[in-house]
Specification:
With about 450 residues, this protein is mostly helical. About 60% of the residues lie in helices and about 0% in strands. It is elongated.
Length: about 450
């Protein structure tokens, strides 16, 4: 792993990066001097993400030349005056992302109070564990400054995520703001640490960080809900109408914002884990249903890869294609072939045959339950139960083969990972109970 990859690993791991629309949680780069400013419109909250960046952020040479509207600039100067926080201003290692604070209308006093809430988060505790592990000789003054700067980062990032997920700022504004936030924070380490300490902590030289941050952000997709790995952004926009992408994006952001709020309630002790799981499941279900209402099946396949991928939130790149009991829920029986998906079964097997297999499967389960009851009651010994179970399975296989073609049977029940010792028994069953299929059904396996 080269040094750039190592810093990315540290950045992504400790700040919980989960794609732009999930809220980019990167480590920024910034210094003790006032960070680069932004040029913003008077009303960034009205930014329309479907249009060119209406809250354009442009770095400037200094805080005095931010190019902020006069009102915003005067408010920023008042909020961040030396008298506002004498303790932090007296510390040469503590600074603030002032222009971002002005953009998001963050008051310095509120920031200093609000950032304390992030001291007990997993992200901050995990990062301080690394600080303590790598920088064992760090003095208390510099460590205190790192804590203040890092919790400031988390507070501002949280407000930035909220502004993006609620539609107050658009995608390009968000990307530019995240870039500057990352740079601001990273530069604080350049001021606090020696070069050797910095490289030990991040495993990259300070000179390479800005370019690395920009490279990360430039790779961030506009639509983070896209799961299909085989679709380019250009092809996506050609195949799915823009208004549909925007509508799905708005519902996706709503789901992510809900999850963020649930996490805060858990941290505050206002919600237990069972309640959180229920709320998250409801939020995800709502997103899935909205996608099914907005998009055609072809458009779902284009964006997510398949309906299954939409419903599970992940693209299956290898077997098994069926997770948990979703096959039993949707089809009424278990798919034993680990390379077969529910969608593939629905596309390939006639619905009436699926109904037949469901009936056979349910009857087999009932028979198994009766045998288990007999065993529990002491009416039959374990050896007899095994014999009966084999007979039940053989009857199930015979019934399935009677309605399915060989290709269809293999699609559902072929399992190359099965115990090799079962193969002779299976072969004997097939020989004793041949079920030739009519040629009209296209059984090329007969």
């Amino acid at each position: 792993m080269n040094k750039q990859n190592k810093i990315l690993f540290i950045v992504l791991f400790f700040v919980c990066f989960a794609a732009l629309a999930l809220g980019i949680y990167f480590y920024p780069d910034a210094g003790p001097t006032p960070p680069p400013g932004f040029t913003a419109t008077d009303n960034p909250a009205a930014a329309d993400k479907t249009k060119p960046d209406t809250a354009s952020l442009t770095p400037t040479a200094s805080s005095a030349e931010t190019g902020l509207p006069a009102k915003a600039a005067s408010q920023a100067a008042e909020k961040h005056s030396p008298d506002a926080s004498k303790d932090d201003d007296a510390d040469p290692f503590v600074s603030f992302p002032e222009d971002l604070m002005a953009l998001l209308d963050i008051d310095l006093a509120a920031l200093e109070q609000g950032r304390d809430a992030f001291k007990n988060t997993v992200t901050h505790v995990g990062w301080m564990d690394r600080i303590n592990d790598v920088l064992k000789n760090l003095d208390s003054a510099r460590k205190a400054a790192i804590i203040k700067n890092h919790t400031t980062l988390l507070y501002v990032k949280d407000r930035l995520n909220e502004a993006y997920l609620t539609g107050r700022i658009n995608h390009e504004t968000f990307k530019k703001a995240i870039t500057d936030l990352m740079k601001w924070h990273q530069h604080t380490y350049s001021a606090i640490l020696s070069t050797a300490e910095y490289e030990a902590l991040f495993e990259i030289s300070p000179e390479l960080v800005d370019d690395t941050i920009e490279e990360i952000i430039n790779q961030a997709p506009e639509y983070s809900f896209v799961l299909n790995p085989n679709i380019s952004e250009k092809a996506l926009k050609e195949q799915v109408p823009g208004y549909k992408l925007e509508e799905v994006d708005s519902h996706f952001k709503k789901m992510i914002l809900t999850r963020d709020q649930i996490g805060k309630q858990i941290n505050a002790g206002k919600m237990n884990l069972d309640q959180a799981r229920e709320s998250m499941a409801a939020s995800q279900h709502e997103f899935i249903q909205k996608c099914k209402e907005i998009l055609t099946e072809e458009e779902i396949n284009t964006i997510f890869g398949s309906v299954t991928a939409l419903e599970t939130g992940a693209v299956q790149t290898e077997a098994p294609a069926v997770l948990g009991d979703t096959d039993k829920v949707e089809l009424g029986f278990e798919i034993e072939n680990p390379a077969t998906s529910i969608d593939k079964v629905k596309e390939t097997v006639d619905p009436q045959k699926i109904e037949d297999i469901r009936f056979f499967y349910q009857e087999r389960e009932k028979e198994r339950e009766k045998v288990i009851e007999q065993l529990d009651a002491g009416e039959i010994p374990p050896e007899q139960m095994e014999d009966i179970s084999r007979e039940i399975d053989a009857a199930f296989e015979e019934n399935c083969r009677a309605v399915l073609t060989g290709t269809e049977y293999d699609l559902l029940f072929e399992n190359s990972d099965a115990d090799p010792q079962e193969t002779p028994a299976d072969a004997e069953t097939e020989n004793d109970n041949p079920a030739p299929q009519p040629a009209a059904e296209g059984d090329d396996a007969q």
